[in-house]
Amino acid sequence: MSEHVTCAIIGGGPAGMVLGLLLARAGVEVTVLEKHGDFLRDFRGDTVHPSTLQLLDELGLGERFAALPHSRFSRIGFPIGRDDLLTIGDLSRLKVRHPYIAMVPQWDFLSLLADAAKEESSFSLRMNTEVTELIRESGRVAGVRYRTADGQAGELRADLTVACDGRWSIAREQARLTPKEFPVPLDAWWLRLPRSPQDRAGALTPVTDKGRFIIVIPRETHLQMAYIAKKGIDRQIRARGIERFRAELVEAMPWLDDRVHEIESMDDVKHLDVRLNRLRHWHRPGLLCIGDAAHAMSPIGGVGINLAVQDAVAAATLLAGPLRRGGGVPPALLARVRTRRLLPTIAVQTLQRTLHRMVIYPIVKGERSGPPEPIVRLMRRFPKASFVPAYLIGIGLRPEHA
Fold first, then answer.
1. What is the structure's pLDDT at 355?
2. CA 30 distance to own-chain centroid
3. Residue 367 burial by CB count (10 A; 0-12/13-18/19+): exposed, middle or buried?
4. In this structure, which of 99, 148, 212, 352 has its CB flanked by the most CB atoms within 10 Å?
């Protein structure tokens, strides 16, 4: 079976859903292909930053988002000793409508976008539909081949195909778009534990103790946690066993002693191979990559979703008109998406690489228990300096607007 659509989007994550919604509202016929049957997957990015909250308002979705169960945090900090906190980024200093980060399960965020997009007659979302191959004709990408959960194969031809299928993008691989990899000395191990009303955990405020770096994200019913350690030691961590892993958590956070038994085995601890990379070119004729498919981000700062969303807004702004008129999109116009989004991407990745090198890795190696002393003195003496990281993380160098 072969069909045709103006724009085919691979992947129903934040970039894919926002792009699909914006193009559909602009009158472009668009189909999003998502290989899973739902959005319910653990340990995905759940931070919605001020720039994205502003975008939701512009799209008329602010009230719907506000109705979702979520928590809000305005400070990004590092502990100094046991009882002191150094604020690195203070979002309350931002002159925006929403000077905070909202923590909401990504599946709720994606469902909100999907429901809004389905209100548009030119939008289609196909779940349980996995893209298996790009269609190439006359030197350009002309659509995709896919397979459904029940084994049915088909073709969806498109004037433009957009890859929003993450850091392991099949479209990027088949188009032979190879990213430049930056060295990352860290990996993350994700887990979840029940939450108690007495917990004093703060989002984006890590726990550091004797060579340990642990990020605790409080949710409505549980704590999502990221255990940060040296890259390449997943086998060692698993070989030490669950008892040792539980003990290390309790040593760093004694208040978890009453619940670490809920981690039944190391199968409950999910390893994330942290990557930091960026494509030199984000397109081929007929194909565009955005979001993690164009630039994988570290989980530090939780900026991946928001950069992906802004990529989608920029792509929709530049491409909706040509797509609506028909006849395809020239490669030079696809290249403009990268040009528009490159500086914000470089700025955030540079900040993440600096934090890896100067702050987090020395803590993981046991060389320090907190940020370098010069940073501590700077932030103590000039607390307004916390505006700069807050702006880079919360808004970015080039916020996009609907």
1. 87
2. 23
3. exposed
4. 352
The rounded distance, in Å, linking the Cα atoms of 241 and 271 is 14
Other beta carbons within 10 Å of 67: 10
- In order of 52, 61, 71, 167, the CA distances from 67 in angstroms are 16, 10, 11, 31
Mean pLDDT across the chain, nearest whole number?
A: 91
Which residues does 143 contact at the CB level (< 8 Å), separation at least 6? 4, 8, 134, 135, 155, 156, 157, 158, 161
- Give the separation between CA 105 and CA 305, rounded to whole angstroms: 12
Neighbours of 380 (CB within 10 A): 12
Amino acid letter for position 224: Q
CA 93, CA 91: separation in Å to the nearest integer?
Answer: 5
Q: Which amino acid is at 289?
A: C
Question: What class has domain 3-181+275-395?
Answer: alpha beta
The CB-based long-range contact list for 361-364 (8 Å cut-off, 24+ gap) reads: 361/185, 361/186, 361/230, 363/208, 363/211, 363/212, 363/213, 364/185, 364/186, 364/211, 364/212, 364/213, 364/228, 364/229, 364/230
Phi then psi for residue 224, to 5 deg, are -95, 130
Residue 119 structure tokens: 């209100």
Instruction: Yes or no: say if 77 and 88 are a contact pair by the CB < 8 Å rule.
Output: yes
**pLDDT computed for residue 82 by the predictor:** 62
**Token digits for 237?**
């961590």
| Mean pLDDT, contiguous 10-residue spans, the chain (402 residues) | 92 96 98 91 76 97 94 82 77 94 90 97 97 96 96 96 95 96 94 84 70 82 88 94 94 91 95 95 98 93 89 98 92 98 94 89 86 86 90 90 90
Q: Compute φ and ψ for 315, nearest 5 degrees.
A: -65, -45
